Amino acid sequence: MARLELEALSRNASLSSLGASASAALADPASVALPLALAAGTVFALYLAVRPARKRIPGPKGWPLIGNLFDWPSHYQAETMQVWQKAYGPVTQLSIIGKEILFLTSARAISELFAKRASTFSDRPKLIFSEELCGMHVLHPMTQFGADFKDQRKFMKEVLAPEVLRNHEALLDDEGRRLLRSILATPNECDRHLRRFSSSLSLRMVYGFEALEIDDPHVLLAEEMMQLAEYAVIGGWLVDFFPSLKHLPRWFPGASFQKRADYYRAKITEMISLPWNEVREKLITGTTSPDSFCAVNMRKYDDGATPRTEGLIKATATAIYGGASDTTASAAWSFMLAMVRHPEVQAKAQAEIDAVIGRGRLPRMGDKNDLPYLTQVVWEVFRWAPPVPVTLPHRNRVQDDFDGYIIPKDTTMVASLYSITRDEEFHAAPDEFDPDRYNDGKERVPYYVFGYGHRRCPGADMAFAQLFHQAAYIISCFTLAPLKDTAGTPLYPPARWAGEMVRKPEPFGYTIKPRYEGVEALFRE
Ligand code: HEM
Fold it and tell me: How far, in Å, are 138, 384, 402 from residue 497 at the CA level?
């Protein structure tokens, strides 16, 4: 910031001196030059004295030239941001080799910039490594806010808008029953079953493929793509700070990132094209669902579809799958952890299900309004363990200001949703898992875990529906409990999460048993 202000000032100074010398040239140069210079100097000094002070946004002290290069939080971003919040307040600034990066940790700052001023703050930073070298610019999470972005959102609405979610109930039910059967068969492998549920549901919704196993080649390819996409985006690549490094030849010592980028690009292209071509073939032979995202959009835009439209749709399909699978699997696993740690919450939710639905059928989405406690449990899982603790980076397209600070054009901004979940102004005893906190509107429902403004998660309603559905199915048929030691004392697992962009609980011990004899009759078929 200081650097930019200095630049601006010196530009002003040289403009005034240019103006001064131009006038002087028209008159007698010798007689007017000195008074003009004095006048310009006085005006400039007065300007410095009376201009509103521009504060530098606080942040860790950097090094000469490289600035805060070593402060970049490649790991544990949310925790680092909590530490910075205590030290520097709700907005922390890093300057890395001329790039400004802001870390936002208060709901006020985040909603002001990302929601109220969404038209300014909804671009993504231009990342050389992931966008240019790996070719990820075509994926919706990386697309700049503009015509392509708006079209991609329009395509997504076909399968994700609240009014069409009903179309996925049969899928949710089918996958839900499979999940319950798997849990009954191999109760120790719940993590695997939940991941299979998420991958299979997403791939069926997006491509219409048959229900898939976790080691299905489509799932493996997608998982690999997700891992490398995460690595590419938050890896802190030097080429993003020194763009000219992108011209280094592949053989040059230290240019191994080029080879890595080639591999990533190939995988991403494969993930975008392979399933799309398969859907096209299967639609011709009538061997895939006509209701998937790809089928619906292919039909709709096939006549006269331009290569641009096809490119946008198939990349959007990849983005939906990428956005949906890890995040929802993480949320489901956190739900399981919460139930193991809080038997009283589980018992209360089960009592509500019994009272409203009984034991003759499985719950469904349509029961949501009659299950307010379970609804609060699901929201509390999202708050207690936000699967995406920190938003993807945003960028402002024009200079703006906030609280008296200047935010230069092209500043990168990362917002911690985690810090809102832990803000005592909004949530009392924030580390506690307490679904009753939302009783009678006491505390705000954490819709914010899906982000703010134009970039808010397009799958938020689907994500809620999915977790509600899984939670209702699982605890209406099974009871989770902690392991016990030899004396019979429950061993409550610690609440610990791992991962960077998407966080999921660390492995934990549990038992899961059918709630009553004959429960499998509800999901056998
Ligand atoms: C537990 C579930 C989920 C959570 C917590 C979550 C959260 C988020 C967050 C915080 C963002 C970043 C917002 C920002 O950059 O400001 C995001 C982006 C995104 N999410 Fe989700 N999400 C979830 C599930 C889903 C699902 C089910 C889908 C698709 C069906 C999805 C698709 C996407 C996409 C495509 C983006 C990129 C949006 C953009 O760049 O404009 N997400 N999500």
Answer: 31, 11, 33
Q: What is the pLDDT of residues 10-29, one digit of tens each?
A: 223 332 332 333 333 333 44
Closest residue by Cα to residue 150 from 118, 110, 128, 109: 118
Cα 173 to Cα 120, 129, 364, 468, 479: the distances in Å are 41, 41, 8, 12, 20
Q: Which helix (H) or strand (E) holds 454?
A: none
User: Looking at residue 303, what is its pLDDT?
Assistant: 59
Q: How many CB atoms lie within 10 A of CB 441?
A: 7
This prediction has a pTM of: 0.87
Cβ contacts of 517 within 8 Å, gap of 6 or more:
none
- Per DSSP (E only), the strands in 39-168 are 91-96, 99-104
Q: Give per-residue pLDDT as tens, 220-248.
A: 887 888 788 877 876 678 898 888 999 99
- The CA 328 to ligand 1 mean position distance, Å, reads 10
Annotation-wise, does 134 bind a ligand?
no
Query: Which among 361, 321, 326, 369 is positioned nearest to 173, based on CA atoms?
Result: 361
pLDDT category at 67 given cuts 50, 70, 90 is very high
**Residues 454-488: pLDDT tens digits?**
999 999 999 999 999 999 999 999 999 999 999 99
Q: How far apart are CA 506 and CA 187, in angstroms?
A: 18
Residue found by looking up tokens 């506690």 in the block: 432
Every domain of the chain and the residues it spans: 1-51, 52-522
What's the gap in Å between 458 CA and the centre of ligand 1? 6
- Interface pTM, i.e. ipTM: 0.98
Residue 52 has pLDDT above 50, yes or no: no
Measured by CA distance, the residue closest to atom 19 of ligand 1 is 457
User: How far is ligand 1, taken at its centre, from the CA of residue 55, in Å?
Assistant: 34
**CATH ID of 52-522, from 1.10.3710.10, 1.10.630.10, 1.10.3720.10, 3.30.70.100:** 1.10.630.10
What SS3 state is found at 273?
Answer: helix
Residue 130 Cβ inside 6 Å of ligand 1? The answer reads no
Is the sign of the CA dihedral 17, 19, 25, 28 positive or negative? negative
